[in-house]
Design brief:
This protein is of the alpha/beta class. It is about 45% helix and about 20% strand.
């Protein structure tokens, strides 16, 4: 082999370390009504060239009118927005000395009912069931896994990395929140802190996918600015932004 032929060969050996595909999925929480901040969030994301997924608290289908359904359908029709199951009511309550939530300690029957109601509401309001699920407060227990396993339509699950109940899931694709989108609390992205956290993780070879959680309805002007900076930064770092359904197709192709 000549030197000229060896150069591309050695370059190819080194390439995987720098060219590994990293997938980012924007996980935007708490759609409940027609809201100007959501419109702005979708518009900003489109201008940035990234698709977004947004979690609907499904009781909103019951509380809102047909204008709400039309608003959701209008955004989803762009092909750049995908809605997912964020539970039925996103409730949290105190039961004696225990704190419970919709998907944390509430019991199998409660959780199965809420997941099913949310799926039925999506079919009626959007014309199809949700394909992805993310719980309120990101709570999840063994009953959540059991209930999810009985709903084959829900194939994608947002979760914290290494969450124990995910081990019991069957036939599901996980969307782990390996990078924190909001470093100053709910609805408060902070670009400077994001970069600091990212610098500590960026060389981890297992960091191949990150679901980034945001709460756009709580964004301030600075919040929108920091969100945009985070997206632009990750794009410059070589990350590819996908919808959950796109990621599922991509993962299926790799498995072939």
């Amino acid at each position: 082999m000549t030197i000229r032929k060896l150069i591309p060969f050695f370059f190819a050996l080194a390439l995987p370390a720098f060219a590994a595909v990293r997938i980012a999925i924007i996980k935007a929480d708490d759609v409940t009504s027609v809201n100007g901040k959501w419109d702005r969030f979708f518009k900003v994301s489109q201008e940035l060239g990234v698709p977004v997924s947004a979690g609907i608290i499904a009781v909103s289908f019951e509380k809102q009118d047909e204008k709400y359904d039309a608003w959701l359908k209008k955004h989803e029709a762009t092909g750049k927005i995908e809605f997912w199951n964020h539970g039925w009511d996103h409730r949290q309550w105190q039961d004696g000395d225990k704190k419970k939530s919709e998907f944390g300690g509430s019991g199998y029957e409660h959780q199965k009912e809420h997941l099913t109601k949310a799926q039925e509401a999506a079919k009626a309001g959007l014309g199809k069931p949700f394909a992805a699920f993310g719980s309120g407060f990101n709570a999840m227990d063994a009953d959540t896994a059991k209930a999810l396993n009985e709903i084959p339509e829900l194939t994608l699950i947002f979760c914290y990395p290494g969450a124990k109940p995910t081990k019991d899931l069957k036939g599901k694709t996980l969307l782990p929140m390996t990078l924190r989108g909001e470093n100053d609390g709910t609805g408060k992205p902070n670009f400077a802190k994001f970069k600091e956290e990212y610098a500590k993780k960026k060389d981890d070879p297992t960091l191949t996918i990150a679901a980034l959680q945001f709460h756009p309805a709580g964004f301030s002007e600075q919040g929108f600015t920091d969100y945009a900076e985070i997206v632009k930064f990750l794009k410059a770092e070589g990350w590819t932004f996908m919808l959950p359904s796109e990621y599922l197709k991509s993962a299926a192709k790799k498995a072939e």
